[in-house]
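In this section we walk through a basic example: taking a raw amino acid sequence and producing a predicted 3D structure, encoded as discrete structure tokens. The instruction is simple. Fold the sequence below.
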Amino acid sequence: MSRNSTRHVSRKIHAATAVAILTLIIVSLAPYSTTFAKTPVVDDVITDDYALIYGVLDTDTYTLYPYETDTSLIIGFSKYGEFINDLYNVGLEYEGKVDPFAPPAGRDVGTIPKRMWIQGWLINITYTHTTLGRRNVWACALFADTKAYGGTWIRVDFHGDWSETYGYEDPRDPGYIIGNYAAGPENYGGRKTNGTAVTEPIEVLYNGPRLFVAKLVTTIYDHPLYEDDSTAADIPLVKVIFTIIFNKVKKQIIVLKDIKSILTEKEGTKMKIQFSDRGQVDLGNEAVGYHSYFHFYTAGTKDPEDDMAEGQTTVYNSIWTMCKTEAPEAEGEGYLGSSLTAAGPFPQDVDATFDVAQAINPDIEVVWWAAFWPSLSDWSIDGWPIWWKSMMAYDPHYIDAAGYVNPELPREPKIPFYIGEWDFYLWAKEYFDPENPSAYPIQFRGVTIYGVADLHDGDDVHYGTDNTIDTEVSYQLDEVFNPIDLNDAVHKKTRRHVVFDKGPEITLPHKVDEGVVVVEDSEWDDYCVFAERVIDLTEGEVEAREGCNWKGQDTYTITVNATTGEVTISDLDEDHKYMILYSTAPGTGRYEWIAIGRDSKAIDSAGAAMVSEAFDSLKDIPVQLSGFDMYDRIWAPYAPYLMARFAVTTGDPRDDWYYWNLGVANDWRTALKDNWCGKIPIASSNIIAVAGPWANLVTEYFNEFLPVIHRGLFYHRASGYIGADDMMALTCWAKNTFTSGTAVIAVYKDLNGTVGFIVWGWDGQDTYEACKWLWEGGIEQLQDAPDGLVAIVLKFDYTKHPTKVTVEECLGTFSECLWMHGEEEKGGIHDP
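The resulting token sequence is shown next.
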């Protein structure tokens, strides 16, 4: 990628169809116009204490995504790590419909008072101090405690840890405002500890057109003094570090939850830690109420409440962590004399799992979910009685309403309260061994995903016929837990095609024996199955397979002739013109495109030639056609280009290819075109992009969907944009950053089904070296890359001849791993 090329931040508009809602521009050189749904919201509000971030799905055109795209997620959160914004009364709002954490949707407060908006986390730390003996420190940021909400950190501080009124210290009790003991000991609120907690302001790592990333940090200390506000004797224990990753075209947010030891060996050896997410789920509105049906799909079991293992499969096994959860302890063992843990250790070495809590409200047809990796040590979906404490193995582990176990308690529908807890040990920081980080782990990573969407086929046995995770929930979660990865990218199995014809019946040019991909009706809307898409160009809408009508538009039927093998699309409107995108799997797949930047340098083209050769000669995977990112009027007026154009101005500046031409200032999204000349698909196809975001607009588009991103200015700095001039490995445990002498190789499949294989370096030389690494055998090394590896960072030592190449980062969608190829180690979980 040529660094001296122009640069910018990315926001995309995927138009995979020719739905010409907007007639503002139709560029003569593009066979179909990209469409824009409505005015995007660009009003994010970020302060030191709270943030309000708007999704943009409803203003994008991911028309091939098989679910609703007319509603975006809006997230609100505090610096403490609660997904509730006190200033705007927004938590996890599915815009205008529901907000399960800050009900109802919108800015108003309904019948549920804010003192009952409980959502956030709780940590319980038990350790043996060198001189003080057994110690227990807890902290929780839950926004509310049923008596008050918000506020700053409060210390529950009873002499000897005991009160004649309240008993032992716990989060239900009043306390002192840390730093202001003069205010007295009768303060309530949602942020409490019996130690000391210090929370830093929100740090935004990146806020671009389609991606928002922020880091939240709270440090927890033991406070051995009684009824004394001095922190002079405080003992550092852990940092609680949240990384919020919000892709603004998704219906969920990913939260990386790192607990990092800062205990010194002079104070103690190791800590038993229980860390949990928890909160109420008010999935409804004022008209229908807030009751829902719910179920917790867990890998662990705990009789009598949970007698079935229902963990969901993931490619992210134990190689993706430094610290597993603990195995259950026998009674009498452990710090507390009772087992703290019902299940574990997780993640598993093979057949790894994650857990999912789901709630549905059929009255307003919405679904909420929370997913947890690794699978949980303890859990409950009806945890109201223990909202304030960490779980023990003997606590009820409800996966449905408690009334199904105890007939004296209510059954569904009701308001669920979820608890997802991980139990683990962390050691004093001096014990950390970078050569063997799992021997004495000093950092644990848990991952939580929260989401809301329209209800499709999600079901609950107490409402319908069976417990079923909604199909869109599965799609969104599979993107994270079972993504298309680099192994898939270099074993490319499919080819994408486009055909235009009129109804009422269209027979595809390829037959079954030529590899046409025809999936079952039940799989048509699944992630990464590369099913066909049918677009009615006359009506300007995407059709749905019969039986999979999630969007409410017309449906079609697909049939295979058992004798001839012909594949026919039928039940179409006569005289309507259709575009059909479909895949074949003829034995070897194909990349339809290799794209370089119009404004890139010759070194990028030299690199692209080696990437194409690597796929063609080493893997027998052909590259069908090369093209530019943007139109080149001077030197290549008839050459194909892949990006959608929104304005035609003199000189064909890069500005023409951004959303802001559609009427909203500072909207720097970009989009892929539908196809080239009606012959080769672009959106929904397979694309190789060479050179970085500065030099290649295709790379700029994919940049915000990768686990390692460029945070720089690119072509423009949009209002509200936050970033830095570097590459950041977002899912690296240490959040490593890179500049000169490094390159990225990554893969992503977007909501339209477009697969992007991206190769780019910090400058043109780095891009060339990454391409050369692939050609000289790197592409074959990727054949045995671990499942889930979606990006690597290469580092080049130019003092060596030939250049020495090392793999510095091996990144998944939410963690990193160590990859062994032969005798050589690659990447690894970095010293946190």
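Looking at the output, two observations stand out. The chain is about 5% helix and 30% strand. Residues 1-41 have pLDDT under 50 and may be disordered. In the next section we compare this with other chains.
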